[in-house]
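ligand=adenosine-5'-diphosphate
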Amino acid sequence: MADSSSVGPAAQEEWSSVVSAEAATRAPPPPTTITRPLLDLSGAAIGGSKEDHNPTIVLPNQSAEVSHFAIDLGGSLIKLVYFSRAQQEAKTTTTEAESNKKKLEQKRSGFLAGLRRHGGFPILGGRLHFVKFESSKLNDCLAFIKSKRLHRCSNGIEGVEALGATATAAAGKSSNSSSSPTTTMPEKNGEKNGVIKATGGGAFKYAELFKEKLGVTFDKEDEMQCLVSGANFLLRAIRDEAFTHLEGHKQFVQLDQNELFPYLLVNIGSGVSMIKVDEEGQYERVSGTNVGGGTFWGLGKLLTKCKSFDEILELSQGGDNSAVDMLVGDIYGGLDYSKIGLSASTIASSFGKVIAENKDLSDYRKEDIVLSLLRMISYNIGQVAYLNALRYGLKRIFFSGFFIRGHAYTMDTMSFAIRFWSKGDAQAMFLRHEGFLGALGAFLSYDKYGLANLTSHQCVERFPMGAPYVGGEVHGPPIRDLNEKITWMEKFMQKGIEITAPIPVSLPGTTGLGGFERPLARSGSLRSDSSAALNVGVLHLDPSLEPFPLLADPKNYEPNTVDLSDQSEREYWLRILFGNLPDLVEKAVASEGGTDDARRRGDAFARAFKAHLARLREEPAAYGKLGLANLLEMREECLREFHFHDVYMAIKERENEAALTVLPDLLAELDSLEPAARMLALIEGVLAANIFDWGSRACVELYHSGTIIEIYRMSRNKMKRPLRVDNFEAFQKKFIGSGGNEGSEKLVPHKRALLFVDNSGADVVLGMLPLARELLRRGTEVVLVANSLPAINDVTAVELPAIVAAAAKHCDTLRRAATAGGLLVDVVGDDGLTEDVAAVPVLTVVENGCGSPCIDFRQVSSELAVIAQDADLMVLEGMGRALHTNYNAHFQCDVLKLAMVKNQRLAEQLLNGSIYDCVCRYEPANYGSSALAN
Ligand SMILES: Nc1ncnc2c1ncn2[C@@H]1O[C@H](COP(=O)(O)OP(=O)(O)O)[C@@H](O)[C@H]1O
Ligand SMILES: CC(C)(COP(=O)(O)O)[C@@H](O)C(=O)NCCC(=O)O
Ligand SMILES: [Mn+2]
């Protein structure tokens, strides 16, 4: 079969001209998500009966005064970190599947009740947002807080609508025109104004003003303390937070938590603080310099008359500092001063050339001046930082503060200085949330024992759905609802700023060896609209996510198989997602009734998603380390942002129904086979049915050529061994012994199998359920692990019980096992439970904590983490879970990875094969760390 998954010419043309100027707004979280307030979880205990499915959690240390935002009022910028939670009952109608789940949960035998450590919260928690304002635009900040009601709370935890930052440009308003809040709000509707954690000099200076305008009282936190606790939190809990930036190359650093301390924190705000951090809570401000971000901004403004910081940064892109700087070569007649390792192009004296020239300010190019200034200040800070690191023997130096502005040239300059002076011994690292350390630290101080203890598997950084190009900056009024968000996307369309060519990222070559050479990232790395820098996403906090306990090497686990840092791979997958978009939008709109509203939302979704793709094309590391799993998840998240809850719902239902009609025949056919042949038929059955994948361009085109059953038959008939990867014999040996001969070695069946199911319809009904049945018959307990939220046509944990119930009508094994697992609601009544189920292995369902076609085992639901502990077999099914992710992952238990490859390129690159090839990869427990690796 030919690969039809590549993008057609028309789509290609459009794709190559998409640009990142398009921005989305932050959105309310999806109604399927119930987020929680930040809570102090210390001393938490389950209240009421332990058998309750959703027992109350008593939080003895939870203060009633937990607030929604913290503020850092600096000399130049005001930073806000605020928390949002979803409107809990935003979705008024309950689907049949959901009400089924409710009924089911009421009936459950208690098999799972004991497993829920966190009271069964759904995945995805509250969100932390990051926004900043210029200090001179305090009124904008007050208006923002007021319009989002951040200062209002009832019981300290209610009342924030979960809307993100707004964006620049189209919705832009100057500070003068923004409405100025004037009066203190009285208490109403049980809400009251809060006590807000505040840090920075403005916490003192503006305390009265905030009291007067918003009625909030500042609880002041020490600035250094906040910087340090903010830094520690980011370094401990946020993946891909720290990175190096050398010669234009950004690389995320995997920090070993045991080797983090001591480090030097260099915060470059208006001024510069250098803090030696010895351990959590132990630090000392060892130095600082008054030559900092304020100096650059202030002098830059004076010398260029530029109105904005970014404008100055951008000017520097076109500068040549040798026009104002005195270089070694200027002094040595064009020669290097090689004896002390200085090349001719090394700056001997910043601005030194100006002295001998009889020129006015206007005789110099602004670009040259600002570049000289930027280099002067960056080198100077780098040098002072290095000297302090040397003084205390510190090898790790983290730079933060908004002076850096994610600006490649600034970072390269400082990295260069550190590397040069330390002779490569010390390393400069930067932080993605560079300017928010103080505000974050202040926020953490609300909740010292809860949030502050979160670890990286409980924090998920999502793409900033709101404003991909805004990076925390707020101009104009906040966007209050979905409608406003769509309108905002439409404004971009009207303004025609959606499409321009992306800027190439190629960098000029090096200029020499020693001294303060010009770093490489001088041009081409800041977008012309200077919006590229600062890409902080929204942090989703969910204490119920946990690492999967069966990972063989959790420290080095990398979910993604395809390396998207390779440009051609990245280009390919970005194109694929772009090319699949029109069809997806059509389905999304249809899934919501095809109304005008749905159409508008569909268009807005497409625009927002394209903007993210374009953004990533331009700066792949914009939102942290990029993998294919992130791209696929981003698409689902983006759909949810625009309230498309389950795009493939109708297709899933139709396919489930069709598959269930042929299930009895299939089961009878399987039962007529000998054990060895049956096992092969089961595995081939799973692979054949994995063809029903609405995420694959090629498969979708295939569906035009026949009915579900015809395609399923065709897929089964085409199955040929050996498969592209074929460890079937090894699995069979473990499963039924050598050749399945009776009397060979005594086999101990697996105790508990986790079946990570993939797609709805034939895939789960004709593929995975018969396999589950076989395992059950052999005495293995089976857990069907399914998505928590919909993704393409993947079956979800909520949908599975009804499917199992329907299948159980045709199969006694399934019926009894599902009854024992408390899965059957509508099929078996209460008296069904009186049946002797003790002897029957249990069949149950758990959610995996994901809403993506892939699975990242660093973060799964706590329910799965607990149930996995006793599992000795995993079956990972499908391209997303077994190929795109986890193909190279090793586990502590036996693993079977089963997938049909539904993309030609992946088949070629990964398996040296072709589209529709199949993988049956069996790895016994601890494969890779044992001799079996050969
Ligand atoms: N949009 C901006 N407006 C003003 N300054 C900015 C902007 N973006 C970056 N900066 C730089 O960031 C510095 C302020 O950094 P920040 O970490 O917020 O410190 P502070 O708390 O002292 O305000 C400014 O002095 C300037 O160099
Ligand atoms: C999204 C998917 C991983 C889902 O595959 P599955 O896990 O269902 O087997 C897959 O459809 C995919 O990689 N699609 C994009 C490639 C393409 O359209 O060819
Ligand atoms: Mn799937």
